[in-house]
Amino acid sequence: MGFIKEIMKNRQLYTLAIPGIVFLALFSYIPMFGHLIAFERFQPVKGIWGSEWVGLDNFKFFFGSQDWLRVTFNTVYLNALFLIFGIGIALLLAILINEATSTLLKKISQSLIFLPYFISWLVVSLMIMAFMSTDGLLNQWLGQLGISEVNWYQNAKLWPIILTLVYVWKFSGYYSVIFMAAIVGISNEYYESARIDGATRLQQILHITIPSIRSVIVVLLLLGVGRIFFGDFGMIYGIIGDNSILFPTTDVIDTYSFRALRQLGNFGMSSAVVLYQSIMGIAAILIFNKIAKKIDPESRLF
Amino acid sequence: MTNPSMPVTKDKPKPKMKRNKIKNDQSFGEKAFLTFTYLIIVVFSAVCVIPFWIVLADSFASEASFLKNGYQLLPSEWSLDAYIYLLQGSQLLTSYKNSLIVAIVGTLLAVAITAMFAYVIAHPRVKYRNVLAFLTYLAMVLGGGLVGFYIMIANWLHLKDSIWALILPYLMNPFYAFILVAFYKSLPYEINEAATIDGAGDIKLFFKIILPISTPVIATVSLFYAILYWNDWYLSLLFIDDHNLHPLQLMIRQLISNLNVAAYVGGGASYQVSAPSNSIQLATVCLTIGPIVLLYPFLQKYFVKGITIGAVKG
Question: What average pLDDT does this structure show over A246-254?
Fold first, then answer.
């Protein structure tokens, strides 16, 4: 009863929310029924309710091959690299830009560093090609130094490093904007009294700046850790595409399930992979939210 | 958390000046530190821009210079062939049109839906606002899962090879919704009460009073949506096969995977020369990121503001 009364009382407000609610239902909540397909031999003509139920067959197939270990490891490993270096280098840049005394340099560098954030991964992938294809700039430079060419796109071992560098290149600006906003909020009085006590710039950074923005760092890390089982599809598929030579180190859960769906047409297994990913994702969020509550109660997510 | 201390820095520009002065007679260590700082900043900034430069410069490289020298910082032989080739064909204009439609229609609808929804979540009189907020957050974390999402759009809504498949799925981004929620929560509640006494309903109040005063944040969120739509190729990869519906991003992808450039770019146009395939890729990229890069200096502050609000609140 209270429910209907509340809806009636604020009906105008709830009306405003209807498109948003419909959107969430259509594109987030109803599609969750798609997880049922993980337990089916799905045939599009028969639909979700008409297809044959096969129990855990799809999961057996996925976990029976070595693929699941590989894609899980790659997803977590790459995300961990992105998170540590992405946030670490952005923090360093934010601090350094903040320390710079020339306003012009500050402004220009901020703009330039932020720029890569705004282009698509496909464009990024073309830029990578300009450097790393066989006749690309890197090989030309190596040649000038008398070092033999490297076949970048055939060498899977190098790609965790390359992808990390690319991630840092694209997202440093974004994260450093967040850090700089936090740094601006630190009261100048701390720095003044530190200077009176004879603290060097480095000491000020280590003992004032970083501790003051600790909670921002923790929140960003936690957000990243919460999504550690979700690979960046646009990035990996945009850059690596269907180059299977590089799969051993770059194939992540998202690209794997995409290929299972779009190239193999295997709805069942793709669905099983996605369900596995969602469950791991929820587990990661719950666990790390708990840890967050312990180390820094203010920065927990919920 | 940041707010109380903000005014302190704003009210006191003088201590900062002093800091600069002090620095001048600082020790050798401080000078070395500053040199190191500048070096890192300059090098990193350069690394960020050089790829943009290469894409621009080499889009004007002749195919002959490409075949001889590959990618270069400065092409050995300049030419406009790629652009002429692109403009003679029909695919570029088709793709540009598609990208523009998706970005404009998508952004307008998305901002409207997101703003209305966020306002309800932020409204203190709505009893179920936390339920709505949680459902939004959960959707952000979980998503629907690729397969269910695909079946919903392709099989249930029958949007395969429809431009709506590129618009509808991004109409409400939870992260942008929370940016708006944070803003609405910061508005004084008296605005609501004053209007309620005047007898205006909530819907009228929202459109007549709340929307106009939230223009800056709306602008920020609109830009985020515009970029999101402009840069997306995931949806078109999943749902668009018809090349008449390819947006620019998918056109770039087609050019990279390079089936038959002349047939794809031309769309019926007949060419005397063979396609300068390398520079065509780069020229398409230039035309795609052109609007972003050109508008960027004027819009940057809005993005910074949006990210900052989002980061502080959530």
Answer: 93
